[in-house]
Amino acid sequence: MRTIIEGGTIVNEEHTFRGSIVIDDEYISEIIEGSKPIEGTFDSRINAAGCFVLPGVIDSHVHFREPGLTEKADISTESLAAAAGGVTTYFDMPNTVPQTTTLEALEAKHAIARKKSHVNYSFFLGATNDNAELLAQVNVHSVPGIKLFMGSSTGNMLVDRDEALNRIFSTVGSKMPIMAHCEDTDIINRNMEAFREQYGDDPDVRLHPLIRSEEACLSSTMKAIMLAVTNKARLHIAHISTAAELEMIPANCIHTLTAEATVGHLLFSLTDYSQLGTRIKVNPAIKNFSDCNALRQGLTDGRITTVSTDHAPHLLSQKEGGCAKAASGMPMIQFSLVSMLGLVDEGVLTIDRLVRLMSHNPAELFEVKGRGFLRTGYKADITIVRPDSPWEVTTDCIVSRCGWSPVEGRTFRWRVEQTLCNGHSVYANGQLDHNYIGQAVTFR
Known about the structure:
Elements: E1 2-12, E2 15-24, E3 27-33, E4 44-47, E5 52-55, E6 57-62, H1 75-84, E7 87-92, H2 103-116, E8 120-123, E9 125-126, H3 132-135, E10 146-149, H4 162-172, E11 178-181, H5 185-199, H6 208-211, H7 214-231, E12 235-237, H8 243-246, E13 257-262, H9 263-267, H10 273-276, H11 289-301, E14 306-308, H12 336-345, H13 351-365, E15 382-386, E16 391-392, E17 411-412, E18 415-421, E19 424-428, E20 431-432
Parallel strand pairs: 1-4, 1-5, 6-7, 7-8, 9-10, 10-11, 11-12, 12-13, 13-14
Antiparallel strand pairs: 1-2, 2-3, 5-15, 15-18, 16-17, 18-19, 19-20
């Protein structure tokens, strides 16, 4: 199968230019700069005139809920949502049922994905208080890294013993990144107790950022950094949420200490709780506008290395209540790229920097083989987006099984026109290919 994408504006490795991309089967075989029509025989011609042609987005932090929680979502539904959003690769987290904390559970997830994932996939192996020796046995080519919960969140995979933490950092930190959820559970529990005494058993969601506070985040992040430095480990701090934490992150240290920002923490702040309520309840909590603004600045000064979604669907019935009862997490993978392109329009970052944060850097940080860039010989994971094409998010356009989004009612100026995964068009002009199956990603 020989395909050409022609007439678009290609954005890749800090270079933006008019050009064409030739795809032979699964691979990019040629990148041609210039607007001159390309002669030759092709099985398919994709007219990208007026569009931007980007490397497919790599979302390195998602919760697709399978196995065990499939009333909310599963690998099929959420990978289709990914394709509709221009995401060609995802890395799924281990807090499923059963938890992905054994090699057997890891292989079971791969077996599901080989049948059901419509884009490319991989899975983090989860750390526990007792499995450091097993973590050392994992094939470094088969996983992006190790997920470590240094704070209690959905799934209760808290690792809180100092001996276990030291063993995890010393055992695997030099081999692959440790992605850490950093919140101090003791501080959170004290805060919750105090607010329950004052406001009742289920405090209003607007108090969520005071319960899962800046202090709780900062305390845990400082501990994680100390462990990483002591053990010469690679640490990637997940969903950083405060300006204070960001001050601890050096710029452009992609193979030592890095930070992830999520789309939700970049879009929303404290004032949005009054309108959106528990729809934006996540862990760690969305906090002040000053924190949101600092994260936005971190996108361009090198302190934020990756932008992901922490895509975490729940049924709306599970989002009812307040700080104690409502589930934490939001579904965002279908709308992550168009949301970030909105920040490009606002002047928060350039489109070249967006591509760096959402495609290039995840590939480099996790040492993804043959993806994340538009290069000859690389897999043809490509997203085509059209500017100046306004559309409104309505319930009927949401692909995720949970059926809702915190951006419902929002109008986006950019539209995902087409998503190619391994050279195959899995999404085009609103239509998804439910039959295509993606590939397992390999590393290092």
